[in-house]
Amino acid sequence: MLTGLPDGYGRGRIIGDYRRVALYGISYLVRERELQFADLQGKLERGEDLEATIRLREELAEHKRALLQIQQMASGYGFDISRPAMNAQEAVQWVYFAYLAAVKSQNGGAMSLGRTATFLDIYIERDMQAGRLSEMQAQELIDHFIMKIRMVRFLRTPEFDTLFSGDPIWATEVIGGMGLDGRTLVTKNSFRYLHTLHTMGPAPEPNLTILWSEHLPIAFKKYAAQVSIVTSSLQYENDDLMRADFDSDDYAIACCVSPMVIGKQMQFFGARANLAKTLLYAINGGVDEKLKIQVGAENRSAAGRGAGLRHRDGEPRSLYGLAGGTVHQRAESHSLHA
């Protein structure tokens, strides 16, 4: 009834801020970590909050190593991402390298993309105004980016494939929504992301998610509805609700429905509870209908009856037996399980 999730899916959910590589470049991000590391030296010497200080220094050192590894990986493809992206093509490429590094080193069940459409629109619009990029070329850049995301595959354990079909990675990209200042976050690039479903056909990945608000531009609402009707490949979530709840307009969806502020939060995700199975055990007197063995408290008076189940302190009897009885299968503990 309590199912420990497969390792790839049970480590928690996090959305990396992949935009930072394009915005700052690796060298700046490394230097930022070095300065933060040096600032902790005084606290370390004074023994102030020693455990937290040591842990933070270790994490900053890991950050630096990981960033340099991303730079080395990109160099192998012939790109220097130590500097910020200078144009739209580099911005798309740099963001992709950051995401590629994540999926190369972590085969998590949900490797979400975050919120890149509005960010990349800044570079695309600047290049178009300077005459360096046409609308057709801009759409081609986004098509290629989405194509690369669609190509991501992981080697999964049999347990993962049993739980999920189609090898999903939930590379969720959120599109639209409103800013805290009342301005829309819909841009021309938001339309380009949706248009990839026409140029390349429908696909489950990336999981394009519309952050729906009553205040979205009417043209975007109509286009999103038209794309949904034709492709059945968009999902919608309530931006008005989540924006107020987080007091932030820079949040995204991890996995399929779970919101978090990008680069600042994560979620623990350890197991699933099968409440329908619990009810079935109560009806069957604690007997598993497949294994034909007693797995919970023997409750013959309830067996075969759909109503009038005995309760103790308001809870079904079977819950007590299962909670205190022998556990036939166990899940390995994990530091990220909550």
UniProtKB/TrEMBL annotation:
Keywords: Acyltransferase, Transferase. InterPro entries: Auton_GlycylRad_Cofactor (IPR050244), PFL_dom (IPR004184). It comes from the Bacteria. It is an enzyme of class 2 (transferase). The keyword Transferase applies. Gene3D superfamilies: 3.20.70.20. GO terms for cellular component: cytosol. GO terms for molecular function: formate C-acetyltransferase activity. Pfam families: PFL-like (PF02901). Residues 1-338 form the PFL domain. Its EC number is 2.3.1.-. SUPFAM superfamilies: PFL-like glycyl radical enzymes (SSF51998). This is Formate acetyltransferase.
